[in-house]
Write the C-alpha cells for this entry.
Amino acid sequence: MTIAVTDPAGAPRRVARGDPSLRARRIAGFGLLSPALGLMVAMLALPIGALVLLSFWTQDGFAIDRTLTLANYARLVAWSDEATVWFGIPFHLAYPVPAILMIKSLVMSLVATVAVIALAFPMACFMAFRVTRHKALWIIVLTIPFWTSYLLRVFSWKIVLGFNGAINSGLIALGVIDKPLEFLLYNPSAVVLTLAHSWVAFAVLPIYVSLEKIDRSLLEAAADLGDSRWQRFRRIILPLAAPGTIAAALLVFIPTVGDYVTPALVGGPGGTMIGSLVQQLFLKQNDAPLGAAVSIAMMAIIALLVVIFLWAIGYGRMRERRR
Amino acid sequence: MTSAPPIITLQGITKRFGSLTVLHDIDIAIARGEFFSLLGASGCGKTTLLRILAGIEQPSGGSLLIDGQPMAGVPANRRPTNMVFQSYAIFPHLNVAENIGYGLRNQRLSRSEASARVAEAVALVKLDGLADRNAHQLSGGQRQRVALARALVCRPKVLLLDEPLSALDKKLREEMQLELRALQRSVGITFVFVTHDQEEALTLSDRIAIMEAGRVLQLDTPRGLYERPASRAVAEFIGTMNLIPGRVAAVAGEAVRFDAGRLGHLDGRAGAAGLVAGGAAFLALRPEQLRLERAAGTAEAGPGRSLSGHVAEAAFLGDRIHYRIRVAGLDRAIAVFVNNAGGVAVHPLGAPVSLDWDAGAGLVLPA
C-alpha cells in the first residue's frame, strides 16, 4: 500500500508505507501523545469500562452476581400502574426516584448554567473591551477565589446562608427580621446559587477568549456602517462570541448535573440531585450495580441532550464560519 | 478646484496620543467629486487623518466640516462617510450579500429596495454569483470588492479608503486601480484615498497631499507634484530624482545660478520661494530629462547644463534603459533613463559619457 505525503520541499511524492523516515515520524507522534493517551486510558476509559460492566451485574445480598443482565436498567424504567406525582407530573414507574432526580438535576443545572453565563458574559466583556492594561492581572484577580478548595468554597456558602449565618445575623442585627430565615439554606435554590458561584470563573475564560479574538476593526466597520453601540453588540459581538459562550455553557452544565458535593452540603433533603443518588447507591444502600446503571444512564442522557442541542443551534456551521 | 463649496474642510486639525503629536495643524479642503489621496510613508499620520474623517478617532483640536456640517461630537455611525478598511473587516459570520447589505439595515429601506440595492452593488463590483459565499471562501481581491460594495451601497457623500489595494498582488492591484478610478467617475462620490504607494497615488488621484511626520508637505495635482516639487522630501518621494548638493550663487527672478562646488556653476530655476544667495541648496534633475552622449566634452547644451562622467551601471528594461553615471566630485551616481525608441545603442560599462539637459529642467530646492 502506498500513501501520498508531502516532502519538505513541497513536492508530492508517493512512498511505501514502510518508509523509515515516515515511520520514525509516526513513532515520534505516538511518543508525544502517549502520556496523555496513557492517562486517558487508565483514568477514564478503564473506569468507565468497569462501570459499564458493573452495571450489567447485580447485587445479591453482600455478594455480586456476575451474570450479565439488563435487570438494573430494566428497574430504572419498570412500569407501575400507580403513579408517583412530582410537581404535577405523574411518573408511572415502580422505582421513580432516579427519573425524578435526573429531571430535577437537569433543571437545576440549567438554571445554574443560565445564571453563570449571565454573570460571566458581562465580566468577560469588561475584560475584553474595557481593560486595556494589565489584562493578565485581571485574570489572576478573577481566579483568586479558586485558590481555595472547592469544598471550602461550598462550605462557606453554608456559613453565609445558614441559620446563624452571615445573612441571618446581619438582618437580625439590622432589625429587619427578629428570627433567622430558614428558607435560605438546604433547598434547591441554595444548590443553584452555590453551583453558579463555583463555576462562574470557568465560564469567564472561554467567553473572554472568544471576545478577545474579535477583530476590533469589525466593530469599527459596523459603527462606520451606521450601527449604534447596542446594534454592534447584537449584530457583531454576540454572534461572534456565540461559539465560546456555548462552550462555556457546556463546560458548566455537564459537570454540574452529576455534582453531589454541593447538594450534600447545602442542599438538604430537598436539594438532592442525581449524583447524590449514585453516591447513596454505592456507599449506603450497597447496590453498586444499580448505582453504575444510574451513572451510565445519566451519562448517556447528558451526551444525547448535548448532541441534540449542538445540532439544533448549528454549532458546527457556526464554528466553521467563525474559523 | 471648482468654486463650489468643498465637501470636506479640515481646519487646524491636530491629533495627540498622550504626549505624542501625530497630526500638526492640518488644513485641507477637498472638492466635491474629487479623487483625493493622502500619500506618505507609514507613521506619517495619514491613516489617523482618515479615521478622524470617519469619526473613529476624535481630533484633539481644529474643526472638520463635511458637506458644510460641523462633525464635532457626531459619532461614526451618524456621519455621511463610509470606509473601506485596510484589513477589509469583512464580517466572518455573514455571507457576501449579508456583508454588503449590512449598512442598509440601518437605513429605513423596504426589504425589496434593500435587496435591489445589494444586487446592484454586487454587479457594480463584479461579484455576481458569489452572493451566498461565506467570507472565508473569498480571495483577497474578492474581499476587497465586498468591502468596497459594502461601503458604496450606503451611498455615502464621501468614501474613505485606507490602503485598500496594499494586500493585493501587483497584477491584481494594477487592475483594481483602473477599476477603482472608473468606479469613482461613474458613481461620482468623493473618494479620500490613503496610500504609501506614490505610483498608485499618481495613477488614481485628482489631487494628492503628501504627508510627513503629521504635516502636509505639499498639496497639488500629480503633475504639479512631479514637475514642481517644493521641497527635497517631495522631490525624493515622487518618482526618481537626482539631487546635486551645493549652494545658491545668485538669484535673478526664476533663474538661479547654482554653485555645485567642484562641478562648477550650473543653471537652474527656483523650485521654492525664499532662495537666497549663499544658502545651501540642491539642484534636482529628473533622470528622464537628462540626455546621454558618448565621449566626454561633446555636450550640446553648454557648460551650465552639462556634466561628464562614466557609466557605472546599465540596466536594459525593454522600453527604456536605466544608467547610473558616476561623476567625479559627486557621492551619488546620477540616474539617467533613456527611452528605447528603437536602435538606441547601449553604452558599455566604464564608457566615458557626458550628460546635458534643457534649460528649465534643473530645479533648485532649499536644503
Q: What stands out?
A: Confidence is low (pLDDT under 50) at residues 1-13 of chain A. The interface with chain B takes residues 215, 217-218, 220-228, 231, 235-236, 239-240, 318, 321-323 of chain A (CB under 8 Å).
